[in-house]
Amino acid sequence: MSGSGSRRHPLSGIAVAGVAATRQARSLDGNSVQICLAAAHAALEDAGMSLDEVDGISARWPGLGGTVFHPGSVDWSAVLGKGFDWVGDTYPQGAPGLLDAAGAILAGQCSTVLVFGGRAGESGGAVSSGGDATVTAVSSGGDAARAAVSSGGDAARAAVSSGGDAASAAVSSGGDATSAVAGYTRPDNEFTSCWGSLTAAQFALVAQVYLHRFAPDPELMALVPATIRNAGSANPAAVMYGRGPYRPADVLASPPVAEPFRLLDLCLATEGAAAMVVTSLERARDCPSAPAVVLGGGSEWYRQQYVDPPRYDDVARIGAGAYRRSFGMAGLRPDDVDVFELYDINTFEVVRQFETLGFCGEGEGVDYLAEAGIGLGGRHPTNTDGGLLAYSHVGWGGPTLKIVEAVRQIRGTAGPSQVPGTEVALVTGAGSGAQYHNALLLGADR
């Protein structure tokens, strides 16, 4: 498809010049500041730039010693040893982080923005991406996420160590079920964390209504996470590398976590970091790697995430406006997308996004995706690195991983997950359970 790099639109002239992702794992040594700095410097190296050229920053402060007012991007100025002309503190990651940076550059507030985030040293028990296969972390399954997978057996035959239902897995030291999950999945919002209404439960409220109304075929629906997880199994950089092959039956046999979600329907909670360098297309063309041009983008916000429970009828089509603005800006249609790097926090959310994009009607997504295919050889290659389900999800920084993979696809440097001839990539973030959604279209410089 045509990258439309020469088309004039409100975001014309902005590009991603550098990207980087550190090693991703269930748990990493060091701390979040260190891993974030590693990603930031790697992205600058990828762009062939020095820190001296950066005059804008968008990066949540992840540790102690800084402000209590998050995101706290300014705290990085002391660590990096320099001040900045512009700081992005609205949503410093993923598509919104890039779009905010683009707006600042186009408004003349800065010329080059470094966006980065991640975490390390926050999960117990180091498990490297190439090591022990016995711990699979799901972002919201409590100790349910401690699913044992024998390193020599079928990757998806996960057994909860307590021997029971995933949601009732024992928590050591008498703690509550929320104490074992990643902090970013249990915000201290009133009526949220205290009742165990974690990320999976919030999305499950929406997904359960969908299943009740439309009754999609369970095996065909399970084909979605199985396909994405198999992409991760084939990706040497993925946390779940080598754990496949996954089959729909394996997804359906995995322990229940939050009805209707089972363990293998849900994303990982891992550690690592990601970064990108956003600048003018003119400057990016002088960088070592081909730029990924910003073709369009948009966001849609309905409610504050994880405060008021989501209702299906309110959020089933969230993102439709963001998609409409993004594709209108780019002068493209969803059919023009070569690679889909969608926010796959769970199975349902992938199906919902394809329906909202207009590829099929409401309730028809499962059948449509089974027919079209979302694997590398399918009509809609999706989450080619394994996505949040199998590559990695690092909380703040996870949405930026989507952009890293999209840029690599456009450059043709995605390795075994490369989709030949990729010129247009769609990146999305958040979704129905979070009650906001965002989209970004990147393209080759044509």
What summary fits the major beta sheet? Answer: 9 strands, mixed
Shape: globular
Total helical segments: 13
Strand order, largest beta sheet? 3-2-4-9-1-10-13-12-11
Order of helices and strands: EHEHEHEEEHHHEEEHEHHEHHHHEE
Structural class: alpha+beta
**Low-confidence stretches at least 5 residues in length (pLDDT < 50)?**
125-179
- Amino- and carboxy-terminal Cα gap: 11 Å
Q: What does the radius of gyration come to?
A: 20 Å
- Strand percentage lies at 15-25%
The percent of residues in helical segments reads: 25-40%
Q: Give the total of beta strands.
A: 13
Mean pLDDT: 86
Which features characterize this protein?
alpha+beta, 13 strands, 446 residues, 29% helix, globular, 15% strand, 9-stranded mixed sheet, two-stranded antiparallel ribbon, 13 helices
Can you characterise this structure?
The strands form three sheets. Strands 3-2-4-9-1-10-13-12-11 form a nine-stranded mixed β-sheet, sandwiched between helices. The chain has a two-stranded antiparallel sheet with strand order 5-6. Strands 7-8 form a two-stranded antiparallel ribbon. With 446 residues, the protein is α+β, with helices and mostly antiparallel strands. Strand 12 (424-431) and strand 13 (436-444) form a beta hairpin. Mean pLDDT is 86; it is low at 125-179. Helix 5 crosses helix 11 (365-372). The chain has helices at 32-47, 76-80, 94-106, 199-214, 218-233, 248-253, 281-284, 312-315, 320-330, 347-357, 365-372, 387-391, 398-411, and strands at residues 14-21, 56-58, 86-87, 112-119, 147-148, 159-160, 256-258, 261-262, 272-280, 292-301, 339-341, 424-431, 436-444. 59% of the residues are buried.
